[in-house]
Design brief:
This protein is mostly helical. The protein has 2 domains: 85 residues; 33 residues, no CATH class. It is built from 5 helices and no strands. Helix 2 packs antiparallel against helix 3. It starts with a helix and ends with a helix.
Amino acid sequence: MGKLTDRLRVKDDESPWSPAEITEVRGILVEEIDNHREEVRLAEEELDHLLRDSGDGAGDDQADAGSMTAERVHEIALANNARASLDQAEHALEQLDAGTYGICENCGNPIGKLRLQARPRATLCMSCQAKQDRH
């Protein structure tokens, strides 16, 4: 199967991944996973707290009820964003371990080391990302 450094594809004008570069990217992804897990935990804890307290609002005026609803919506969005980022980081780490890291999931071309070093969770090359952003 070969060494991981030999299996990871790069653009034609890039040098192969070095063990140090792979270690650095892996460390960033592991740190992101840990951080996002904590963000999800905190957001879900806050949402649980808001939902528990929402039953105590008998007699609250409409402004209080609206404020409580806005807070819940905000916490749900935070939890969803943290979950999505966690999923992306875990997926990238799985790809790294499988030797498929750095391949655009849309066109199959290399994403590029510079892009991945700047954004280790990237799953699309710049061209495919730009197309997706336009839609």
